[in-house]
Amino acid sequence: MPGHFADDLTAAIIDKHAPVCVGIDPSYERLPESIKRKFGDDQVAALREFCTEVIGAVAPIVPAIKPQIAYFEVHQSAGVKLYFDMIALARASGLMIIGDIKRSDIGSTAQAYARGHVSGENCPDAVTVNGYLGSDGLTPFISEGDADGRGIFILVRTSNPSGAVIQDFADASGKKFYQHMAEQVAALGRDSVGSSGLSRVGAVVGATYPDEARQLREMMPEQLFLVPGYGAQGATAADCAASFRPDGTGAIVNASRSVIYAFDKNPDVDWRQAVGQAAGAFAADVADAVF
Amino acid sequence: MPGHFADDLTAAIIDKHAPVCVGIDPSYERLPESIKRKFGDDQVAALREFCTEVIGAVAPIVPAIKPQIAYFEVHQSAGVKLYFDMIALARASGLMIIGDIKRSDIGSTAQAYARGHVSGENCPDAVTVNGYLGSDGLTPFISEGDADGRGIFILVRTSNPSGAVIQDFADASGKKFYQHMAEQVAALGRDSVGSSGLSRVGAVVGATYPDEARQLREMMPEQLFLVPGYGAQGATAADCAASFRPDGTGAIVNASRSVIYAFDKNPDVDWRQAVGQAAGAFAADVADAVF
After folding, report:
1. B57-70: per-residue pLDDT in tens?
2. ipTM of the assembly?
3. Among A73, A77, A160, whose Cβ lies nearest the Cβ of B81?
4. Can you give the pLDDT at residue A233?
5. List of residues 6+ apart from B207 with CB closer than 8 A
6. Residue A74 with chain B: CB contacts under 8 Å
7. Residues B84-130: pLDDT tens digits?
8. What is the pLDDT of residues A76-99, one digit of tens each?
9. Which of B75, B77, B226 has the highest number of chain A CBs within 10 A, making it the mutation to test binding with A?
10. Where are the beta strands (DSSP E) in A208-250?
């Protein structure tokens, strides 16, 4: 059956009462000492064990993970192999997967990316993309996902300080560039709305600007929002709530470092248990704010 | 010795009298029939042979190649291995390499990309990046290249039709978004200008809008321009000339499909010879327009 990313993720969120995903951003330097000792110089093997254990720890708690491919590409081809292997493992563990790849290119080149990252073997259920090149760069990612109902999240408003220098550029009416991008995203997603009322074409909207998130929620009523910025980047669950629809659907909040490195602040329990506890606390915190 | 990307590329361009690079965008479907027959179902092996032969054919003629990583990522980890292997081969063949990766992310994630693509093993001399996330997303690519003097090209004005919908968004003074981006790029590159007067921080400026390229040349006097759009995308050498400084330096024009698939239009010679001839004609055409 083909599926529809936004519908399926919405159902999984409700099922687990957890409108969150855990970002898999593995840095060798930050791994538990026990793993570093076990694998010595083989950093990729160490990352494999770490990711495998993290996926096992969070799979009962959250509906989805968001592997950040940059942390895999540090290790070039061996890291890329690990990225796709971990997607396969997560899927077998009942998780949905958002590949945070933020790719951008045009026409046949975007098509090539999409064949590798959307419709290829062990690809995630959705990927993030950058819209600076316009719809030429986006439609191939959508069309390669048609057969399996896969989704994309287009960068609209990022959660980092210097993003505003670029994204706040405003026209004569006061409309900002990220709002212009939001209009493009809403238009692009109109043809792929599922039974949840949400499109397979979603938006990345940082949690650190809740007033803007509320405006964007109105401008993009059919978009599923992927919301970074919780935890390590400073946003609270209340800030994140601005990205949801009134019924508590329409968004998924991500936390990465505050969950997967939770053992740093909780050294008295097994490190996997610390990760699982942090995932549970994160899910409960956001669920309480939105449901 | 550390080197400086813009200085070194400028010297290599003058040395070969060829202000051009050849884009390596290998699609299995478009390979010569002789290669498809030889390798059967092993598409990556076929691409390896094709890229190896193309690099050999163009190395005496042009100063640089621009591998487009999307065409390698189609084949996931095996393709990424081939990408880095081909960079090593090109370097051993005396070519400079611009990795067309158009990555974009922030902070520690951008740092991870940069460690994989700028300062890691067999990395290219420069990479393309997307500036939508602001300087947070760009400085890691610059700083990881400090030790080897490596460069970046930031997307400013792309050569595709729908790019204008995004990039022409204008403020009250009429300044367009891509011009706003150009100002950021000029500021970001100010601290890394070499003896050529050009910065290690360059800009991607499509050839299909020569009037805009002339304006951008004035706004970014210290930027090396990477100019796509020649050939298959419709721009002429005269269009491309708008991106150069009056002395004929300051830009490098890329052509991909019109060179590497030149055998399609020249079936009477060995395919490698057709590629070499097309590279030579391309280099001469642009050199005549700018020198």
Report:
1. 999 999 999 999 99
2. 0.97
3. A77
4. 75
5. B159, B213, B227, B228, B229, B230, B233, B235, B239, B240, B242, B243, B253
6. 112-113, 115-116, 120
7. 999 999 999 999 999 999 999 999 999 999 999 999 999 999 999 99
8. 999 999 999 999 999 999 999 999
9. B77
10. 225-227
Residues in B closer than 8 angstroms to A117, CB to CB, are 73
A37-65 pLDDT, tens digit each: 999 999 999 999 999 999 999 999 999 99
Range(s) of the domain holding residue B213: 5-290
* CB nearest to A109's CB, from B68, B162, B181: B68
What integer is the mean pLDDT of A256-278? 97
Query: Is residue A155 within 8 Å of A101, Cβ to Cβ?
Result: no
A216 occurs within a structural domain: yes
Q: Is the dihedral of CA A232, A46, B117, A201 positive or negative?
A: negative
CB atoms B109 and A134 under 8 Å: no
Cβ contacts of A134 on chain B, cutoff 8 Å: 158, 160-167
HSE-CB for B250 with a 13 A CA cutoff: 22
**Which residue of chain B is at minimal alpha-carbon distance from A182?**
B166
On whether residue A29 sits in a domain, the answer given is: yes
Minimum Cα–Cα distance from A121: chain B residue: B76
- The span from the CA of A38 to the CA of A44, in Å, is 12
Q: Which residues of A are annotated as catalytic?
A: 102
**Through-space distance between the first and last CA atoms of chain A, rounded to whole angstroms:** 30
Instruction: Give the active site residues of B.
Output: 102
Alpha-carbon span B261 to A1, nearest angstrom: 39
Q: Which chain B residue's Cα is nearest to A100? A: B105
The position carrying tokens 């022409």 is B168
Residue B165: CB partners within 8 Å, gap ≥ 6? A134, A135, A184
B171·A172 Cβ contact <8 A: yes
- Measured CA to CA, the distance from residue B199 to residue B149 in angstroms comes to 10
Residues B238 and B41: their CA atoms lie apart, in Å, by 43
Write phi, then psi, for A64 (nearest 5 degrees): -155, 155
Cα A99 from Cα A128, distance rounded (Å): 7
Contact B100, B86 (CB under 8 A): no
pLDDT digits (tens, 9 = 90+) for B123-172: 999 999 999 999 999 999 999 999 999 999 999 998 788 888 899 999 99
Q: Is residue A208 a part of any domain in this protein?
A: yes
Residue of B nearest to A118 (CA): B74
Q: Tell me the shortest Cα–Cα distance from B247 to chain A, in angstroms.
A: 31
Give me the helices (H) in chain A, please.
Answer: 5-16, 33-39, 43-58, 70-73, 76-92, 107-117, 139-144, 163-167, 177-189, 210-219, 237-241, 257-260, 271-290
How many domains, in total, are found in chain B? 1
Interatomic CA distance for residues B28 and B46, integer angstroms: 7
Question: Would residue A291 count as lying in a domain?
Answer: no
Closest partner residue to B165 (CB to CB) among A110, A172, A184 is A184
Question: Which CATH number does the domain housing residue B192 bear?
Answer: 3.20.20.70
Contact assignment for B25 to A75 by CB distance below 8 Å: no
pLDDT in tens, B205-238: 999 889 999 999 999 999 999 999 898 778 999 9
- The pair of structure tokens assigned to B10 is 């400028």
Q: Is the pLDDT of residue A29 over 60?
A: yes
Contact B164 A71 (CB under 8 A): no
